[in-house]
Every structure is written in C-alpha cells, then in structure tokens.
C-alpha cells in the first residue's frame, strides 16, 4: 500500500473572478475507490497571497472529521493528516471556507454530485490521495483533455485496474507559454494556466505515486500561429527530460485536426502534419489520436462537436477504447 493520487483537478489563475467564488466550498463526490484512508491535498498554485483554509470537514455516512485551520503560502502544497473512512461509503462530503480565492478550478467534474453552488470556482483543493495498491497517471493538456470526452471513460476503465488517471487539462492552455483570457501581469491572472513545463513540474510536486504523464499539447499554439516544428521539438524534449529525471514514463500524443476552426488555415495544417510525422518517426511512446479521429485533414463529422476542433462523446469513446486496449495488452 502506498499513498497514491486518485483524483485531482488542474488549478488556474482566478483572481479576476473572485466575485464568482464564494468563501464557503461544499462538495459531494462519488466514492473513487473503497479505501480505508485518504488525504486531502491543497495548493495555492497561482496565488500571490497567503491562502487561509478554515472549518475543513470531511463526512462519510454519519462520520464527520474536522481539521484545524491552516494557511498555504503562494506555490505551496499542503496535505492533511490521514482520514480514516468507511470503505463502504458511496459518497464523500467535503466542506471548508477559504480566502483569498486566486487559484482554483470550475465546479465541472464528473466525480462531483450536481449541486446548487452559488460559486463558479473552487479554490484551494487540488487533489485527493488514498493508501492503495495502485498508481497514478496524469493527463496534462488543454481543453481537448479538460473536456473529459476521452479521459472520463478511460478513468472508469482504468480504476478497475487500480490505475488512477487524473485530468489535468486547462482550456486555452499553451505548450510554449503562460496564457490568459485578458492581459495578465501576475500568475493569479493566468486563466489559461502556466506554460506546459511549469505545469508539469507543479503536477509532479502535488501528485503522489505517478507512473506516467500523458502530454497532449500544442493545438492552441498552432492555431494562434506561434508554433514551429523546431520550437515544438525543443519544448517536447524539455518535458521528456523532466519525466526522465523523475524516472516517470511519458506518453506523447499527435495533434488532432482542426481545419474549419477560426484561425486555422492550410499552412498551419501542413505544419500539424509535419509535427505528427516527426512524432511518429521519433517516438515509440505515442498515442496517435489524430489517426483515430481524422479524415483528409479534418475531424471526421461523426467525431466533431460542431466547432471542428473539440471531440464529441463518440470521439472520446473511440480514443478511450483504443487506449484501454493498449493498457490491457501492456503497451
């Protein structure tokens, strides 16, 4: 048994949206694994101020555990003491108060029960660990990952094998640099997150017992005209080097088609094809998402969500089934 991250959600800079984040956070989650002990992981990844967590409690069935108040410095990761829980409990309920709210995520997660949250963002909580016989895989990427079309069905399959895939996608995220929906001068305003390399390092700091990282980046850089074959290669090699330093396996992914999406054109499509050719020729650790969903440089209509970029549920299931098959075969 080893402490393993079984759930996490990517944080982003939310300082501009603090008015949409209530000071009280209440979450009800489906049981992820019938563990006897878990730990809650808090982070202040993008915050520039000390974050205060108060009145933290965790409930399963009729058992409630309360924790002393604590504070998190900017960029700090804080883990609670072990929480003993009833492994037969199907719901986990979590409540706490927090301020200020500069780093967090939106309340759209497949493991959460629907609720009448007045807040839009959850600040503070970033992951849950359990003492299990298993391993964690991080899916690091942009909206093509955060949308969960392929990660959610794959999570369900892999959890049966005590492999916990966690979704660390941030919509709008870039391979090459930090980003935001408005001009930003500080990390708490990076609504689209840090650059891929910084995000990877932060993930490896906050997650436990990680066996592999899936790296699915580059589409936003491509569409905005910032990508070249050379800077893609340089950044991917830097990401690989971090994984190798930590003795963690990595999985690269081909860039999926997006012709028809605003900003995409024929010249950028040629670059996408060159990048994918390089990935296919150079990497044996590759999930060829493009080959699964494209036809003549475009998303197959049956897999198109409607904007010619993002996957629909059918595409996600196709990808998840292929990857799940690879895991079963030990590839």
Describe this structure in words.
The chain is α+β, with helices and mostly antiparallel strands and 331 residues long. The protein folds into 2 domains: 2-130, Jelly Rolls (Sandwich), CATH 2.60.120; 134-329, SGNH hydrolase (Rossmann fold). The protein contains 8 helices and 20 strands. The protein has helices at residues 143-146, 151-159, 196-206, 219-223, 229-245, 266-282, 289-293, 313-329; strands at residues 2-8, 12-13, 24-30, 37-43, 51-60, 63-66, 70-72, 77-79, 83-84, 91-99, 103-106, 121-123, 125-132, 135-141, 163-169, 210-216, 249-253, 286-287, 294-295, 298-299. Strands 1, 4, 8, 9 and 13 form a 5-stranded antiparallel sheet that branches. Helix 3 (196-206) runs parallel beside helix 5 (229-245). The two termini are 25 Å apart. The mean pLDDT is 93. This is GDSL-type esterase/lipase family protein. Residues 139-314 form the SGNH hydrolase-type esterase domain. InterPro entries: GDSL_Rv0518-like (IPR053140), SGNH_hydro (IPR013830), SGNH_hydro_sf (IPR036514). Pfam families: Lipase_GDSL_2. It comes from Enterococcus viikkiensis.
